[in-house]
Specification:
Blueprint: E1 8-17, E2 20-26, E3 31-33, E4 36-38, H1 45-57, E5 59-66, E6 70-73, E7 79-92, E8 102-106, H2 108-114, H3 118-125
Parallel strand pairs: 1-7
Antiparallel strand pairs: 1-2, 1-4, 2-3, 2-8, 5-7, 6-7
Length: 131
């Protein structure tokens, strides 16, 4: 059916290590966000979350609890749904790439202050103190 706006589906992670959260800088948008990206055709949300986190951060992770989904309008005004999981690092190393040029490990409070978008800040704040 043409003319029907489809919701953009994406998935990502709140990657945790030693009480810190990974926050990434995307030069294309000059923003700080949680690692995430769009689903590939036929891909499940959880598989996309693991793939996108690894592509953006170089980190292989294990899924933890799924968090509350986030809905918002993207920079083009399209409806977007992002499902996030808490993740723990199994291995890997960050190397700057085309999508992400910097990764910072921050306590939840500082991560929240660094994040560009309110929906990301709210998600991190929902984890509670010491997340």
């Amino acid at each position: 059916m043409t003319g029907v706006a489809r919701t953009i589906e994406a998935a990502g992670g709140v990657v945790e290590r030693d009480g810190l959260i990974a926050v990434v800088h995307r030069p294309r948008y000059d923003d700080w966000s949680l690692p995430k990206g769009k689903l590939d055709p036929g891909e499940s949300f959880d598989a996309a979350a693991l793939r996108e986190v690894q592509e953006e951060t170089g980190l292989r992770c294990a899924l933890g609890a799924e968090l509350e989904p986030v809905r918002y309008r993207d920079h083009k005004g399209r409806a977007k749904l992002v499902r996030y999981w808490r993740m723990t690092v199994l291995g890997g190393t960050f190397t700057p790439n085309d999508e992400v040029d910097e990764l910072r490990w921050e306590p939840a409070e500082r991560a929240g202050a660094l994040l560009t978008y309110p929906h990301d800040r709210q998600l991190v704040q929902s984890l509670g103190p010491g997340a």
